[in-house]
Design brief:
Belongs to the CWC16 family. YJU2 subfamily. By secondary structure, the chain is α+β, with helices and mostly antiparallel strands. It has seven helices and eight strands; from the N terminus they run E-E-E-E-E-E-E-E-H-H-H-H-H-H-H.
Length: 323
C-alpha cells in the first residue's frame, strides 16, 4: 500500500540535474509572508495605534549591502489598518530586535532607550581614558570610593541581621498572642456588659408597662352576693316552647307543672251551714259553685305526677255523680 503523503520522488537512472534550466530571479525579489507586529507602534498619517501581536500580510525583501556577521537583514512592508499607509521596519540581529524605518513611531521603548544611554556613557568614558591618563586615575578613585560605600552598607546589613538573630521570635509571637487574647477577652466583657444593660433596661420598661396596665384594668372589689328575688322570674324573657310529644298531648308531661293539672280539683268536704249569726246560710244557686275554693283548681303538689292528679280528678267526678 502506497503512502498518502510521499516526500521522496522517483529519479530515473538517466536523470541529469544540469539539464534543468535555472530561472533568473532578481536579487531584491519580494515575498508575501504572514507575520505579527513585533512591537507597539503608532501610524504617523492617521495616528492609529497598532499593538504588538497584530497579524499582517506583509511583503518581505532582503536589504542590499547590509550584512551583520554574514547574516542578511530583511525589510518588511505592512499597511496601516485605518488609512492603509505603508509602514516599513527591518531586522536588527546585532540587538536581537527590530528597527523602525518610516511610516510610524515605536512606543513603549523606555528599556531600550536606557540601554542605549548606558552604552553611550560607557563609550564616552572609554574614549576619554584612551588619551587622558589623569582621567583614568580619577575614574579609578571614584570606583574605589563607590565600592567602599557598598561594602559599608553591606556590613551594616550583616550587623543588623546578627542583632536580630538574638531576638526570640517565639516569645514575641507568644506575647502578641497573649495581647490578642486579652484584647478579645476585654471586647467580649464589654459586649456582655452592654447586653446586660440592654436586658435590664428592657426588663424595667416591661415592668413599667405591666404596672400601668394593671392600674388601668384593676378589678372592682367583690360585692356580696344578693339573695334572688322571688318575683325576678316574671321579669325574665319567656323561654322558647319545647316541642310537645304525641303521648304528652294525650296523657301529659311528667314535669312538676303538667298541663292537665289545671283540670284536677281536690275533693273537699261539704261546707257546714254557718250558724254564727243564728240564721242559716242561704243555699247556693243550682248552677253556681258551692264554694270559691271548690271552683278554683287544687294547688299543685310539688312531687305529684300528672297520672295521680288525673286519678284524683276521676275520683272526684265519681263522687260528685254519686251524690
Amino acid at each position: 500500500m502506497s503512502e498518502r503523503k510521499v516526500l521522496n520522488k522517483y529519479y530515473p537512472p538517466d536523470f541529469d540535474p544540469s539539464k534543468i534550466p535555472k530561472l533568473k530571479l532578481p536579487k531584491d525579489r519580494q515575498y508575501v509572508v504572514r507575520l505579527m507586529a513585533p512591537f507597539n507602534m503608532r501610524c504617523k498619517t492617521c495616528g492609529e495605534y497598532i499593538y504588538k501581536g497584530k497579524k499582517f500580510n506583509a511583503r518581505k525583501e532582503t536589504v542590499q549591502n547590509e550584512v551583520y556577521l554574514g547574516l542578511p537583514i530583511f525589510r518588511f512592508y505592512i499597511k496601516c489598518t485605518r488609512c492603509l499607509a505603508e509602514i516599513t521596519f527591518k531586522t536588527d540581529p546585532e540587538n536581537t530586535d527590530y528597527t523602525m524605518e518610516h511610516g510610524a513611531t515605536r512606543n513603549f521603548q523606555a528599556e531600550k532607550l536606557l540601554e542605549e544611554e548606558e552604552k553611550r556613557v560607557q563609550k564616552e568614558r572609554e574614549d576619554e581614558e584612551l588619551n587622558n591618563p589623569m582621567k583614568v586615575l580619577e575614574n579609578r578613585t571614584k570606583d574605589s570610593k563607590l565600592e567602599m560605600e557598598v561594602l559599608e552598607n553591606l556590613q551594616e546589613l550583616k550587623d543588623l541581621n546578627q542583632r536580630q538573630a538574638h531576638v526570640d521570635f517565639e516569645a514575641m509571637l507568644r506575647q502578641h498572642r497573649l495581647s490578642e487574647e486579652e484584647r478579645r477577652r476585654q471586647e467580649q466583657e464589654e459586649d456582655e456588659q452592654e447586653t446586660a444593660a440592654l436586658l435590664e433596661e428592657a426588663r424595667k420598661r416591661r415592668l413599667l408597662e405591666d404596672s400601668d396596665s394593671e392600674d388601668e384594668a384593676a378589678p372592682a372589689p367583690l360585692q356580696p352576693a344578693l339573695r334572688p328575688n322571688p318575683t325576678a322570674i316574671l321579669d325574665e324573657a319567656p323561654k322558647p316552647k319545647r316541642k310537645v310529644e304525641v303521648w304528652e298531648q294525650s296523657v301529659g308531661s311528667l314535669g312538676s307543672r303538667p298541663p292537665l293539672s289545671r283540670l284536677v280539683v281536690v275533693k273537699k268536704a261539704k261546707a257546714e251551714p254557718d250558724c254564727s249569726n243564728g240564721q242559716p246560710q242561704a243555699a247556693p244557686a243550682p248552677g253556681a259553685p258551692q264554694n270559691r275554693k271548690e271552683a278554683d283548681p287544687a294547688p299543685l303538689t310539688p312531687g305529684a305526677s300528672s297520672l295521680s292528679q288525673l286519678g284524683a280528678y276521676l275520683d272526684s267526678d265519681d263522687s260528685n255523680g254519686s251524690n
